[in-house]
Amino acid sequence: MQNHILSIILFTPLVGAFLLLFVPKENKDAIRWIANIFALAGFLVSLPLVPWFWAQRFEPGFKFMEGGPNNWIPSIGAGYVLGIDGISFLLIMLTTLLGWVSILSSWTAIEDRVKEYYIWFLILQTGMLGVFMALDFFLFFVFWEAMLVPMYLLIGIWGGPRKLYAAIKFFLYTLFGSVLMLLGILFLYFHHHTVTGVYTFSIPELYKTAPQIPFHYAIWLFLAFFVGFAIKVPMFPFHTWLPDAHVEAPTAGSVILAGVLLKMGTYGFIRFSLPFFPGVVMDSRVRWWMIFLSVVAIIYGALVSLMQKDMKKLVAYSSVSHLGFCTLGIFALNPLGLSGSVIQQFNHGISTGALFLIVGVLYERRHTREISEYGGISNVMPAYATITMIMFLSSMGLPLLNGFVGEFTILQGAFMEKEMGGHSGLFWTAFAVSGVILAAAYLLWLYQRVFFGSVTNPKNEKLHDLTPRELVTFVPLIIMAFWVGLYPKPFFQILEQPVNQLVQTVRPNYPLTSGTVNASAQPKSLTIAPPVSGTAALAVPEETRGKK
Hints:
Among the domains are: 305-510, no CATH class; 514-544, no CATH class. Helices cover 68% and strands 2% of the residues. The chain is built from 22 helices and 4 strands. It has helices at 5-20, 28-44, 49-55, 86-105, 114-133, 137-146, 148-158, 163-196, 203-209, 215-232, 241-248, 251-276, 278-281, 284-306, 311-332, 335-366, 377-380, 382-396, 402-415, 425-451, 468-486, 489-506, and strands at 63-66, 82-84, 526-528, 539-541.
């Protein structure tokens, strides 16, 4: 099983979708049970990956590799190649968890075309997992595009009043970015053949030749990938599809869209943009623009959230702000920034996924998301109010909860950079910190309006509290929020090796702390100096040790 664990995780949801084809559409309960069983199975089969990966967490390179280059379509050099590192491992675990939670939350929310809904949701799950596992560019692009169709249908068929507008907007934005990315992939493919004489889509092989691309070509390639990934994140100013898609999507669609799909953009930056184009991302002008757009997203998303009257749109714009922190950490280009970014991506999936579930609970009971329709909900739904407060505090970054760990690490990574795109790290961090304050403002304002005071609307007087099924959807998210907030050390250890390898690829001379470098993976020219003044030891070249 260990040799094929990635394929098992990848295709378990697809097996469920295939079985649902043979269930009569009138038998809705059977369809729901089968879909939920396979969603839960998808999560359970991913659990053995945790101890197996933990045992290999400091080993360099990709782990659990399956397949080989050119073994799928040899004529064009495409192969079925799967493999993961610490970054993709965390995102895979997040995907399997949220996939199960999302499908479980749909039990009573979806009444029309139930069979098609669950089939497309399970196919979507497979597409997302494939993006995080694929180590062949052709295979990666297949999964990247395969994910687009189910999400389009989930919004366009089971969405709200403006579902077609939102679905088409989402589809066109993402497709435009995908076309540019495809052109970039083809350039890398032919460039590799020019250098080596071999046609291959193997990502590890393309890593070796991509940095040799002349800068004037590399900058255009970087922009092609940037547009594809920035639309998916979405970075400002490519964010306009997101609020519409979130507001119109069914609750489970919003959970999976915010929790996983947006991470495909940040994952693309980390997996492809940084190692393929190190010279471009280290250029001060490029870096300035990336950090500037990230900080604008942080502040803009938070300010627009303050103005919303619809709860779901407020949470949607908060995602723009939170993902701005993630891209800020990526382009800080140091171990703290990158580790914080990946952890914050994981945290955002947990916290914002829970926020969309919270909005969905009220919407199922009242069929309105207008903030003005509510007030005093804690009087009639105390358990619901308690869980909401925990997840709100998690999302705003309160210490002891998960959001604090990610945001603090990102801000620390940005602050310690002496020069980031022509400005000091202090300059950018000062602006980014305002996003934390604004997050507290819009979330506490929302909580005060909806939950405090007396019940002012008679329609809310007889609302029933969380059902056992609804409670089950929140429990794993709350556990993860406290785990990351109280004991994040395992998550940093999982990210240690891939993050340092990435930093050494982009910035070969960057000094790495002994706490973040695996001794067995260090270059032979590096040794560990003794700790100085209680700080972590630095890895410094032998010939410079002892010199000022």
